[in-house]
Amino acid sequence: MKKSFGPKTLVYPTPVWIVGTYDKDGKPNVMTIAWGGICCSVPPCVAISLRKATYSYGNITERKAFTVNVPSEAHAREADYFGLVSGRDTDKFSATGLTPIRSDLVDAPYLNEFPLILECRVIHSYEIGSHTQFIGEIVDVKAEESVLGEKGLPVIEKVKPLVFSAGRRAYYKVGDYIGDAFSIGKGMQ
Amino acid sequence: MKKSFGPKTLVYPTPVWIVGTYDKDGKPNVMTIAWGGICCSVPPCVAISLRKATYSYGNITERKAFTVNVPSEAHAREADYFGLVSGRDTDKFSATGLTPIRSDLVDAPYLNEFPLILECRVIHSYEIGSHTQFIGEIVDVKAEESVLGEKGLPVIEKVKPLVFSAGRRAYYKVGDYIGDAFSIGKGMQ
Predict the structure, then answer these.
(1) What span, in angstroms and rounded, lies between the C-alpha atoms of A81 and A97?
(2) How far apart are CA B122 and CA B136, in angstroms?
(3) Which of A45, B4, B42, B65 has its CA 20 to 30 A from that of B119?
C-alpha cells in the first residue's frame, strides 16, 4: 500500500547541469538546473526548464542557444554557487575562477574546466507554468581527454557527474556499476 | 582543450524510469525510458520522450495519461527487460511477476512493487524527430512506507534509483551524499 504525497516534483534521479549563455551585450552567464533531460535521439536534443525571472531565460530567448555543462564531483561547490546568485548583478566567473569559452558552433559559452559539455541551438520552447522549457538540438558534445574511457568516449566513472536529490535538496555521487542495459533483462520470462 | 564528439545524446546523468500505460482495450503496459526529466515546478510536470513505434506511444496518445515508476536497484533486471520487449506481443507482468495497479487519479496503471511512482495526465505533446515528447502534469506522487526518511518523504538512499549511462549503455547506483543544495556554494567569491 503506497502513501500519497500529492502533486510534487519528487522523483529520482535528476541531473545537476550548468547552463551557459550570453546576454544581449555578450556577457557570459551560467546557472544551475535540475529540471532537464535528453528528449530526442535523432536529432539529438536536450530539454532544459528555467523560470522566466532568471537572467538566463532572457539570454536564451535572445540568443537561441545555450550550453549544458556537466560538473564533476570536484565542482560541487561551484555548481551550487551558480544556482545561488544571479548573473544580473554578479560575475560568476571571477567569483569562482572558472573560464567561459566561446563556442565556435552556437552563440553561447561553455565552461573550460568542466569535463563534459553540450553545445545546443534552440529549436523549440514551451511555456508550461512557473517554468519555460527550451529544447536544444545538440550540435556537438565536447569532453576532456582525462574523462575518456577505453573506447575513446567520455565515461561516467571519470566524468563523475552529480545527482540532485529533490527530496532532501542535496547532491550525490554516481555509485557502482550494476549491469549493462539491453542485456541484464534478457531471458526474463 | 576539449575533444569533439559530434552531435550525440551523450550526457550524465540520465534516469531509468518505467512508463505505465493502458492500451485501448485496457491492457496495462510498461516500458523503460532514459529520455526524460522534470520540466516544471508549478504545476509539477515531468517530460518523457518515446518513439512513435512503441506500443506505449499509442497508449499515451489515446489515454492522455501515464505513470512514471522508479525502479529500485533490486529491480534492475526487470527495468531492463521492460525495455527489451514490446507490450504488443508480450505480457510483461506475467513474465516478471510484477503487478499493475489501476490509478484512481489518472487513466494509467502503476507498478505495485516499485518504491516511488508519479501519476500524470498529459497536458502537451511535441514531435521532435525520432521521439515525441509528452509533458505530464504530476497529479500525485506515491511511495512505499519503507523508503520514507526522517521527514516522512521518500529519500534517495532508500529508493535506490538507477542511473543510466548513455556512454556505456549501463545502469549505475546512486552513490554517496556530497552536500546540501542551495548551501555548499554559499560564501564563494
Answers:
(1) 12
(2) 4
(3) A45
pLDDT of B121-151, one tens digit each? Answer: 999 999 999 999 999 999 999 999 999 999 9
Q: Do A182 and B169 touch (CB under 8 A)?
A: yes
| Dihedral, B87, B37, B167, B69 alpha carbons, nearest 10 | -40
CA dist., res. A18 & res. A38, Å (int): 15
What is the predicted ipTM?
Answer: 0.97
**Total Cβ atoms within 10 A of residue B106:** 25
Phi-psi region of A187 (alpha: psi -120 to 50; beta: other; left: phi over 0): left
Query: What are the cell numbers at A56?
Result: 538566463
For the record, the C-alpha cell of B54 comes out as 512503441
Strand partners, B48: B36, B134
Helix (H) or strand (E) holding A47: strand A45-51
* Maximum pairwise Cα distance, chain B: 60
Amino acid at A46: V
Which residues of chain B have a pLDDT value below 70? 189
Span between the terminal Cα atoms of chain A, in Å: 26
B71: its cell numbers: 525502479
Q: Which element (helix H / strand E) includes B139? A: strand B131-144
Q: What is the CA B133 to chain-centroid distance, rounded?
A: 13
B3, B8, B11: which to substitute to probe chain A, counting the most A Cβ within 10 Å?
B11
Characterize the bridge pairing of strands B109-111 and B100-102: antiparallel
Q: Please name which of A29, A137, A155 lies closest in space to residue B11, comparing C-alpha atoms.
A: A155
B36, closest residue in chain A (CA to CA): A37
Name residues 91-110 of chain B within 8 A of A (Cβ).
Answer: 94-96
- The verdict on A61 touching B (C-beta cutoff 8 Å) is no
pLDDT per residue as tens digits for the range B40-62: 999 999 999 999 999 999 999 99
Task: Report yes or no: B81 and B31 within 8 Å, Cβ to Cβ.
Answer: no
Closest Cα in chain B to A187: B81
- Which chain B positions have a beta carbon within 8 Å of A189's beta carbon? 81, 90, 94-96
Angle formed at CA A175 by CA A172 and CA A178, multiple of 5 degrees: 140
